Amino acid sequence: MSADIETYLFPTPLSDASALPLRVQIRERVLAAIGSGLLKPDDRLPTMRALAVHLRVDLNTVQRAYAELERLGAIRTLRARGSFVSDTPPHPDGVLKAAEVRALAASTIARSQAAGLDPEAVVIAMRDLLGLPPTPSEPESGSAKG
Question: pTM value?
Answer without folding.
Answer: 0.62
